Amino acid sequence: MKNLINIAIVSLTLLISNYALADFQDGLNAYDKQDYDAAFEEWQPLAKQGNADAQNNLGTMYANGKGVLKDAKQAASWYQKAAEQENAGAQYNLGNMYDFGKGVLKDAKQAASWYQKAAEQGYAKAQSNLGAMYDFGKGVLKDDKQSAYWYQKAADQGDAKAQFNLGVKYTFGKGVLKDYKQAVYWYQKAADQGDAKAQSNLGTMYAFGKGVLKDYKQAVYWYQKAADQGYAKAQSNLGIAYAFGKGVLKDDKQAVYWYQKAADQGQAQTQFNLGVKYAFGKGVLKDDKQAVYWYQKAADQGYAEAQSILGVMYANGKGVLKDDKQAVYWYQKAADQGLAEAQYNLGFMYVNGKGVLKDYKQAVYWCQKSADQGYAKAQSNLGIAYTIGKGVLKDYKQAVYWYQKAADQGYAEAQSILGVMYANGKGVLKDLSKAKYWIKKAYEGGDSKAKKTWNTFELWKH
Prior knowledge:
By secondary structure, the protein is mainly alpha-helical. Among the domains are: about 20-120, Serine Threonine Protein Phosphatase 5, Tetratricopeptide repeat; about 395-460, Serine Threonine Protein Phosphatase 5, Tetratricopeptide repeat, CATH 1.25.40.10. The protein has helices at about 1-30, 35-50, 50-65, 70-85, 90-100, 110-120, 125-135, 145-155, 160-170, 180-190, 195-210, 215-225, 230-245, 250-265, 270-280, 290-300, 305-315, 325-335, 340-350, 360-370, 375-390, 395-405, 410-425, 430-445, 450-455. The protein is elongated, with a radius of gyration of 34 Å. The protein starts with a helix and ends in a 6-residue tail after the last helix. Mean pLDDT is about 95; it is low at about 1-20.
């Protein structure tokens, strides 16, 4: 008799389970037909009875406002109930809620904890997100090896985001040995799934021949794929391809078109590039005001080249009212980031007292910074400072040293002065044959004083 009762209880349990399964499936069918009210009616009773899948789905309906008013707190509450029953999808979803502070207080540690639980059950999206947490040190200690481990787990399951991130790891050798072929392999996997970032990076690998044979046409192909999805970096790179005719016919109008797309999304380098197009009238009508507009946009984001050229525009009154103080302001911004040209220009402003009080020591300071980076004009001017003893003690040997540096780069003015130093034996032993060599070089380079020097020292005789 006892056995019969047990059999009856088991049968009843199976019957209830089958009914619950049917109700759950009815909910899925309704949801697929976008009949969210009906889906909610099917899943709510099941969720209240403790069905974890129904609880998770109910959470998603509250999260997205489907069949109910959007309510992040209710979503989090249902995800929590399901997550505590080891439902991997709910654990992932709850991790997301903590990650972004939706319906709960933002808590990276809690986010990482729930991602971990779901990841250990093999849930690919959670593995991918856990990899990102280790990548950036969110809620866990930053650990490139752990990051790569979890990206690999998710990538092996076909998660495109993880495939892209794993490609990045191989590109830079973070948590794995640097391996461009592996990077290309994973970028390709993600790109084939339509991941725009991966398509863009795959284009770059083709452009530079990293992990694949260099192929500009393939680079453009993948840039185009990503650019068509609105990815700003790819739009910028596609613009560059058109600007220089790499993988496509050179077309300044197309370059401007793609630069504009990326610039409108706030891509600083592209805003600078677009400014250059307006400044020189390539692919657009020449317009200094528009050039300044885009330089300013990029400069405000800290892009050093834009800050430097914006300084030039203020110094010369192009597209803006001439303003030496503003010129100095922007030169300083770029110079502080180590841009050699800006350092040279800032030194020039101190030499001439433009926008700042004249200060030869400051001039030499910035000139030296620029010269040390190999900027020929700065090297030549530093030579002049040592020649006349402005901002430094007069030192002909040092002067010659810096003139030589600039002259070796083909800077005609420095070649001309170096020739004079040899002709006069200042800082070097007098050597008219070397003077002749450098004056001739300067003349060929277009230096206006070289011919006079040639005649003064009668260098044709040597």
